[in-house]
Amino acid sequence: QVQLVESGGGLVQAGGSLRLSCAASGRTLSTYAAAWFHQAPGKEREFVAAISWSGNTLYRGRVKGRFTISRDNAKNTIYLQMNGLEPEDTAVYYCAAGKYKFPLSLVQYDYWGQGTQVTVSS
């Protein structure tokens, strides 16, 4: 079992930055693909960014160039650096981990965190 705990969310003005962290326990994340999803009120959970165990990355189109996903295997942690935040980025952000072939679909992520709220004011 892998337990994931997100942190780093908060309230920020448009154009600002936040760095989300996803700390894993129970098992090492180094052999797992990991991803960030977000879910706004009344909307479905959407893919944001993913990183393979070897460091390949994939981004949702509208965050490309603004967000960066990374991993620190020594700390068993996944990060999402978010720059140039827009009000449309407001959502609960979830991290997830899975061992299927990269890139994974949402249902292939076996482990999920509880989420951290990101609110971007205009």
Task: Supply the key terms.
122 residues, mainly beta, four-stranded antiparallel beta sheet, 0% helix, 50% strand
The span between the termini is: 40 Å
The proportion of residues in beta strands is over 45%
What sequence of helices (H) and strands (E) makes up the elements? Answer: EEEEEEEEEEE
Number of strands: 11
The mean pLDDT is 96
Helix content: under 10%
What is the overall shape? globular
The number of distinct helices, counting runs of at least 4 residues, comes to: 0
Largest sheet: 7 strands, mixed
Q: Unreliable runs, pLDDT <50, ≥5 residues?
A: none
Any overview of this molecule?
There is one protein chain. This protein is mostly beta strands and 122 residues long. It has no helices and 11 strands. Strands 2, 4, 5, 6, 9, 10 and 11 form a 7-stranded mixed sheet that branches. Strand 4 and strand 5 (46-51) form a beta hairpin. The radius of gyration is 13 Å and the shape is globular. The relative contact order is 0.32.
Quick overview of this protein structure:
This protein is mainly beta and 122 residues long. The chain contains no helices and 11 strands.
Please specify the SSE layout and strand pairing.
Layout: E1 3-7, E2 10-13, E3 18-25, E4 33-39, E5 46-51, E6 57-59, E7 67-72, E8 77-82, E9 91-98, E10 111-112, E11 116-121
Parallel strand pairs: 2-11
Antiparallel strand pairs: 1-3, 3-8, 4-5, 4-9, 5-6, 7-8, 9-10, 9-11
